Amino acid sequence: METDFEGWNKASEVQLAQLFDPKRPVPTAFANSLSTDHEKAMLQTMDALRTSSAAVKHDCFLLQRDITRFVVERVAEDPVSAKWGALNEAARRRLLLAALRETCLATSDMPPRRGFVPEIVVPVLSKGDALLKLLDRACFDEMLPKDQADGEYVKVENVRWNQMVGKITTNSPALKDHIVADMHDSRHTFLFLFLLSVLLALYDLSQQYVPTKHTNALGSEDANGRKILAQSGMEAGEIDEKLKGWSKEWKAAGRLCAACNTVDRALAPGKKMQKDCQTRDWKRHKVLCGQPVASATPRTFVDSTPVPKRASKSDEAAGIPAPAPGFKHSPALIAQIEALKEMPDASYVLFLPNPAPANAGVAIPDAMGAIFFGIMRKRAMENGDPEAVGMMYKQLENSAMLSAEGFVLGKEGLKKQLFQEYGVNVDEELKRKAAATAVAGAGREARSGTDDLRKRFAHP
Asked: What element of type H or E holds 349?
């Protein structure tokens, strides 16, 4: 991997494309084949496994917290969207590959987790705003304090991934829940660490992040399996026999290449990978051959239904609603909410271009206008309603043309800000509104003309 990382990554992306192809049946790549004795041994050490998993969940929370703060804090002065937009596609590819390589080399168990994150495809992320959309999905709906060290991370959902881990089977529901959760955690550790590496590289910064290494939930590595069995009270000779049996189970299930012990999930379950290594599959598989066995690390909940976020007391006091299910606050909108908390008398905050020393708070002077704006802002923040965003623009456009600290945001700047916050194209919304108004006006004229005819020809 280290000598030809780009080739290794291309081979990994080919496998990801096959594994996560929605046109194919859901593969059983993660279906468990643990023996009863193996499951029993793991159940006896569940407390140790849970402790290890808690540390990884904590890593995920801290990474997601820092990603969110990193993006939100730069919205006003040096936004990620502008930095990313200034790079051509070739520069983006180089940066993505460098960040991906750094992520894979963070710890020895990181390379296998590459196969848990189909969202990371360099040719796709290097085009358009694909990376920015992935960043939005990976951020919290609010900016947490930098000293907040405890909390739950929010998953970046992937339907295909949920279906795959849902096929895991064990005799113990508790063990299955742990394995599934462990796999979700591993997936998000890799994803979040990659995104943070991208951000740091984009701004020419560096930061040392060493993810917590945790016990492999499926016990596929000899060291972890030996530790589990030793803790269950087995003698050394019995442990050796058990490990040999587990190795046979894994190879029989079609997960390991018999030539190199590398996971190759693109092959059908039960297929003899050694033969493929020697014949037609070798050209693709040789790039991965010799890499460590993948551990079951990503974590996704079986129930993928998103839990609606409740507004905090401070948000409610500031008139900030919680996002409705299915709508996620963008980093730019989170920055707007934070700015409004700092300017409680403002109806909205305009982010002036660099090098303006401060942002401009706008207070709607007319009492009825302020009430109407507050209603529109609530609707927009709650569900991103395009009509509400368009009405907000109409009320803010004059303020955007005024000079503040010698700087002017302008109408185009305001449109860009609203697009970054809500994802609404203001020009398209205004055209839609004008067309709807014209149709309604034509309808009223037609009805009025009909009424006039009725009056003219009505019997006295």
From this structure: strand 348-350
Q: In 3-state terms, what secondary structure has residue 165?
A: helix
Type of residue found at 431: K
Helices 236-252/36-43 angle, 10° precision: 120
3-state helix, strand, coil in the chain (%, to 5): 55, 0, 40
The pLDDT value recorded for residue 126 is 95
246 with 38: CB under 8 angstroms?
yes
Answer yes or no: are the C-beta atoms of 39 and 170 closer than 8 Å: yes
CA distance readout (Å), 237 to 36, 242, 251, 360? 19, 9, 22, 73
Please give the angle made by the CA atoms of 46, 116 and 43, to the nearest 5 degrees: 10
195 pLDDT tier (thresholds 50, 70, 90): very high
Q: Cβ distance 418 to 389 under 8 Å?
A: yes
**CB-CB neighbours of 38 under 10 Å:** 23
Reported confidence tier of residue 193, pLDDT bands at 50, 70, 90 = very high
pLDDT tens digits along 397-455: 998 888 776 788 899 999 999 999 999 999 999 999 888 888 776 666 656 655 554 55
- Does residue 386 have a cis bond before it (omega within 30 degrees)? no
Helices (H), 266-409: 273-278, 282-285, 313-317, 331-342, 367-383, 386-400
SS3 state of residue 389: helix
